[in-house]
Amino acid sequence: MELTTRQVLMVAPRMSQEAVAEFVRVFNVWNDRFGITTPLRMAHFLATVWHESAGLTRTVENLNYSAQGLRRTFPKYFPTAALANQYARKPQAIANRVYANRMGNGNEASGDGWRYRGRGLIQLTGRSNYQAYQNSAFCNGDLMGHPEWLSQYPGALKSAMWFWWKNGCNELADRDDATAVCRRVNGGLNGLDERKIYLGKFKTMLDIK
After folding, report:
1. pTM of the model
2. Distance (Å, rounded) from C-alpha 90 to C-alpha 63?
3. Contact call for residues 168 and 137 (beta carbons, < 8 A)
């Protein structure tokens, strides 16, 4: 089953036709390989990608937090106002702190947190996740040396499709379980209401009753 530019513009009429066309082109090359082959799977995938990427407008994680935002979002890493003020509005320093010593990253000084921050339409984050994608049969070239590839097409979309497939999201979509899909992708229920709104729109687009 193929997606068309016209279908996507029904849901997102204000988007650039060129941007949508590129998304559709890459999707149609890879959707069979990643099993996104039924209307229901497609609707859930598109709803997830739309939420995660702010409607295809974001392919790199935004870490430009205020001090208040740091304490609210990362209280474990910024337990005091003084520390939060030290890092506020310094995205590179923030990434290196909050992603240090986990997800395969080195310590804060290694720079891995910033180097392997979230990228792609379903944001891959951390050295180990980048390495897993590079080690798959679907990544061409030296991603570890060029992590910025995940912020560009085709990598931004293909990596999202790989993540979806690898993490069993097709099977959750078959159950039409938006909550389970959200947990699998996000680790929680962040943005569930918006995901459901998008899901409804894509189901209408694909004529799912």
Report:
1. 0.93
2. 8
3. no
